[in-house]
Amino acid sequence: MGAECGAGVGQIALAWLLHKGDNIVPIPGTKREKYLEENIAAADIREVEGL
């Protein structure tokens, strides 16, 4: 799935959770700015089949 939109495993997992509904709020933790930016980018993933 990630290869379709150039996303990593963590981004796909976050995107999946974000699309489950308004009552689901993932709280990812990170120690590095790079991973924070990846987590934020997960909110923009929409076109992966199965989400």
Automatic annotation (TrEMBL):
Pfam families: Aldo_ket_red
Record-linked Gene3D superfamilies: NADP-dependent oxidoreductase domain
Transmembrane segment boundaries: none
Domain NADP-dependent oxidoreductase: 3-45
Name assigned to this protein: NADP-dependent oxidoreductase domain-containing protein
Natural source organism: Paenibacillus radicis (ex Gao et al. 2016)
